[in-house]
Write a structure and sequence with these properties.
The protein has 405 residues and is an alpha+beta fold. It has 13 helices and 14 strands. The strands form 3 sheets. The protein has a 6-stranded mixed beta barrel, surrounded by 4 helices. A hairpin with a 5-residue loop joins strand 7 and strand 8 (180-191). Helix 2 packs antiparallel against helix 9, helix 2 (15-55) crosses helix 11 (308-343) and helix 11 (308-343) packs antiparallel against helix 12 (368-394). This is ABC transporter permease.
Length: 405
């Protein structure tokens, strides 16, 4: 308690300098907190857009399907697998997909297309595909009134084939049994934009594509959406699957996007480090000046029997109190901006592209991580730069100190 009283007395003895130091560290906390909030919030927003777009958080495939896709590399008994995974903790939705390269024919033109079979209800709960229908209506199970299965077609493919709503689309592919697959479908919706993932895709219901490709209870991909993207890696690692199946998190499925995001994050951390370095230099200067001004005082303390450890702890405690107070002030200052960034965000005049994902609203993040990391950084850097002045004060020789004064 005596040490604490002395530390408070020394801080309040030169109030102007202590106030300037406190404001400097509070500014550092404020900048760190707002920048980390923007950084983490923007990355989380991008990841959510990316995973909800079409990848999901975790995907299941046949062992080497991702590296060497093939029509015959299927997940068998897929309905049972989907139902089992749906009951796992943290799972929001699960859906299965079938992929088949195809030749699309419309009126007098042909064009290559990727045909994707989906469960309309499960797909709508897992991704944003339903919201991307620009014309017509969302895909339905069963046949249309004309007796053909309905199809969603990408906007670029529709333009290339000169097709619109209600037109017939002919697809030619290879069945899973090696036979020629061909059938007529009715376009009931046009999906995506000219720059989106869906632009050259054709979407059929699972019932339609399984009949088209002569498949049974099979799929090429199972997509899992979790309650938070951070659970993807541990969930994929913990998922128990048959020996020939692999679970991969979105970080592995879209590795280029993940790596580009990590590089950008490292750049932000360097900027944050520069800010804290500048703040730490100011703190070091203040603590060092305060220590040198009290050389005679430390000499007297040592002369009356104060141990070097106590002198060292006195300087460290003064720095800690200033750092803690600055974090409290900085937190109060940063609370309103972080709240605004988290729930309203900043609308940019032009969208930013990150790994193929465009986003126009920069959102912040309000979390314990955003508030605690700057506090730990400010307090830690303050104590670090205070070590040298504290050691210098602890090694003070009473006679020399009093003679120098």
């Amino acid at each position: 308690m005596l040490l604490l009283k002395l530390a408070f007395r020394n801080i309040l003895r030169n109030r102007r300098r202590s106030l300037l130091t406190l404001l400097s560290m509070s500014g550092g906390y404020f900048l760190l907190a707002t920048m980390i909030s923007m950084s983490e919030g923007s990355y989380s927003h991008m990841i959510n857009l990316f995973t909800q777009d079409h990848t999901g958080h975790v995907q299941i495939h046949y062992s080497d399907y991702l590296t060497r896709p093939s029509l015959n590399k299927t997940i068998n008994n897929v309905d049972e697998l989907v139902n089992n995974i749906s009951g796992y903790p943290h799972v929001k939705s699960v859906t299965s997909r079938v992929y088949a390269p195809s030749l699309a024919y419309g009126k007098n033109k042909t064009f290559p297309a990727q045909v994707i079979g989906i469960d309309p209800k499960r797909e709508a709960a897992t991704t944003l595909l339903e919201l991307k229908v620009k014309q017509g209506q969302w895909l339905s199970n069963g046949m249309s009134e004309s007796g053909y299965f309905p199809a969603l077609i990408g906007v670029s493919l529709a333009t290339n084939l000169n097709l619109g709503l209600g037109d017939e689309l002919i697809l030619i592919s290879q069945g899973i049994d090696g036979s020629i697959a061909n059938d007529i479908f009715i376009i009931t919706g046009i999906v995506g934009t000219a720059d989106s993932y869906e632009r050259n895709n054709v979407y059929l219901s699972l019932g339609a594509i399984k009949q088209f490709l002569a498949m049974h209870d099979q799929a090429h991909e199972v997509v899992i959406a979790l309650d938070h993207q951070s659970r993807a890696m541990p969930f994929a690692d913990a998922l128990k699957l048959p020996q020939n199946l692999n679970a991969a998190p979105w970080q592995k499925i879209e590795e280029s996007f993940y790596k580009s995001m990590q590089v950008d994050k490292k750049g932000n951390y360097i900027s944050l480090g520069v800010i804290m370095f500048l703040v730490s230099i100011g703190v070091l200067n203040t603590v060092l000046m305060g220590t040198m001004e009290r050389t005679r005082e430390f000499g007297v303390l040592k002369a009356i029997g104060t141990r070097p450890k106590m002198v060292f702890m006195l300087i460290i405690m003064e720095s800690f109190i200033l750092a803690l107070a600055s974090c409290i002030v900085g937190m109060l200052l940063a609370f309103a901006p972080i709240y605004y960034l988290t729930y309203i965000g900043l609308v940019m005049p032009e969208p930013i592209d990150m790994g193929g994902v465009e986003f126009q609203i920069m959102l912040g993040e309000f979390s314990a991580f955003v508030l605690l990391v700057p506090a730990i950084t400010v307090i830690g850097s303050t104590l670090l730069v205070s070590l040298f002045p504290a050691l210098k004060a602890a090694k003070t020789v009473p006679v020399s100190a009093m003679q120098a004064a």
